[in-house]
């Protein structure tokens, strides 16, 4: 009887003393992830209760995610990665989600430069929200930057968690000469030619921006930042680069104002053309919009042809295409 009473009292003490009382989900660490409940998390936890923001229930970094019973979950938890790992996943789970909150993840490379931004908006009704941000590693620019990386997690512009992870690598390259001190990379032109083609407009621009961070000393403004500061109809215009030329010649140029707001010396952008068969012949054309000369010029056109087999993933095809794109661009800029 005394033993049973002791177990009951001990259990009640654990539940009431170590766990948040409104949901009973979080103790000193998030289960199995190694992610500690930090002071930043505790501050956010107070704000989330006072302002009815989503409750952060779970944080992890992992090598992958998988879907079970229509629910996506992280697998292979770790804070340590190598250049041979395909991806780093920063996975979060939120409870008590109401209205339409906005999630944002900012990933910083070991030198402290902003490397990637991921934004999402809640569109469901379950009150729960599983989110993951993916950083591509193997064959992508992140694989060339060894050291301690930092991911900042925000909900409705309030910081909720800071998660660090390590990527181990042995980079062998020197910085390339680059004519601009501060450059922005804009999403590539969306002509809407094909669904397979559209997938490149974000990923090609993101790769180019990240590669410039790795291989040059330029200050790089990421595509997401510029995209949020320019109207989407502009990016979808027919004769896009002719429109840019005409706009630069105007005394009320929206492109010049964009560069002024972000203190840019230039904007790099481009377009992607393919033959309609995903994974086969493709051509990426890169352009530079120069603030000083008020001109737009074609820098390089990269071609890639793949006789794609079942053993070649779409990721690897894209990786080789983007590597070729950057190599051509940096030689001719």
From the N-terminal CA to the C-terminal CA, the straight-line distance is: 81 Å
Number of DSSP E strands? 14
Give a short account of the largest sheet.
5 strands, mixed
Q: What is the string of SSEs from the N terminus onward?
A: HHEEEEEEEEEEHEHHHHEEEH
Helix content: 25-40%
> What's the CATH class label of the largest domain?
Alpha Beta
- Low-pLDDT runs: 1-31
- Rg, alpha carbons: 23 Å
**Class by alpha and beta content:** alpha+beta
CATH topology of the largest domain: Rossmann fold
As for the number of domains, it is: 2
Architecture of the largest domain, CATH level 2? 3-Layer(aba) Sandwich
List its traits:
single chain; 333 residues; alpha+beta; Immunoglobulin-like; Rossmann fold; 2 domains; five-stranded mixed beta sheet; 8 helices; 29% helix; globular
Can you put this structure into words, describing what you see?
- This protein has 333 residues and is α+β, with helices and mostly antiparallel strands.
- It has eight helices and 14 strands.
- The strands form three sheets. A five-stranded mixed beta sheet has the order 3-9-8-5-6.
- A hairpin with a 4-residue loop joins strand 13 (282-290) and strand 14.
- The termini are far apart.
- Residues 1-31 have low confidence and may be disordered.
Question: How are the elements arranged and paired?
Answer:
Blueprint: H1 2-18, H2 39-50, E1 55-68, E2 71-77, E3 80-82, E4 87-95, E5 102-108, E6 114-121, E7 129-136, E8 147-155, E9 158-168, E10 182-185, H3 195-215, E11 219-221, H4 223-227, H5 232-235, H6 240-248, H7 254-261, E12 266-274, E13 282-290, E14 295-304, H8 314-332
Parallel strand pairs: 3-9, 10-11, 10-12
Antiparallel strand pairs: 1-2, 1-4, 4-7, 5-6, 5-8, 8-9, 12-13, 13-14
Helix pairs in contact: 3-8
């Amino acid at each position: 009887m005394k033993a049973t009473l002791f177990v009951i009292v001990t259990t009640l003490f654990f539940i009431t003393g170590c766990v948040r009382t409104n949901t009973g989900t979080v103790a000193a660490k998030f289960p199995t992830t190694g992610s500690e409940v930090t002071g930043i998390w505790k501050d956010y936890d107070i704000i989330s209760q006072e302002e009815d923001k989503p409750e952060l229930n779970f944080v992890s970094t992992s090598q992958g995610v998988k879907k079970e019973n229509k629910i996506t979950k992280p697998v292979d938890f770790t804070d340590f990665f190598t250049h041979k790992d395909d991806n780093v996943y920063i996975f979060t789970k939120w409870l008590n989600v109401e209205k339409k909150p906005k999630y944002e993840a900012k990933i910083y490379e070991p030198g402290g430069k902003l490397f990637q931004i991921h934004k999402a908006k809640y569109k469901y009704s379950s009150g729960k929200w599983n989110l993951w941000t993916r950083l591509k590693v193997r064959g992508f620019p992140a694989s060339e930057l060894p050291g301690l990386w930092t991911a900042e997690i925000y909900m409705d512009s309030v910081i909720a968690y800071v998660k660090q992870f390590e990527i181990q690598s042995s980079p062998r390259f020197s910085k390339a000469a680059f004519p601009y001190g501060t450059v922005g990379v804009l999403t590539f032109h969306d002509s809407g030619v094909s669904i397979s083609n559209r997938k490149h407009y974000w990923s090609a621009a993101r790769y180019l921006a990240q590669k410039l961070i790795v291989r040059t000393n330029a200050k790089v403004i990421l595509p997401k930042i510029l995209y949020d500061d320019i109207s989407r109809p502009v990016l979808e215009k027919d004769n896009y680069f002719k429109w840019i030329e005409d706009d630069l010649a105007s005394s009320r140029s929206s492109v010049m104002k964009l560069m002024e707001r972000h203190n840019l010396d230039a904007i790099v952008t481009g377009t992607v053309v393919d033959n309609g068969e995903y994974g086969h012949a493709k051509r990426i054309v890169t352009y530079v919009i120069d603030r000083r000369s008020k001109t737009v010029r074609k820098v390089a056109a990269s071609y890639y042809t793949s006789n794609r087999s079942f053993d070649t993933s779409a990721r690897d095809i894209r990786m080789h295409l983007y590597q070729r794109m950057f190599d051509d661009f940096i030689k001719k800029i």
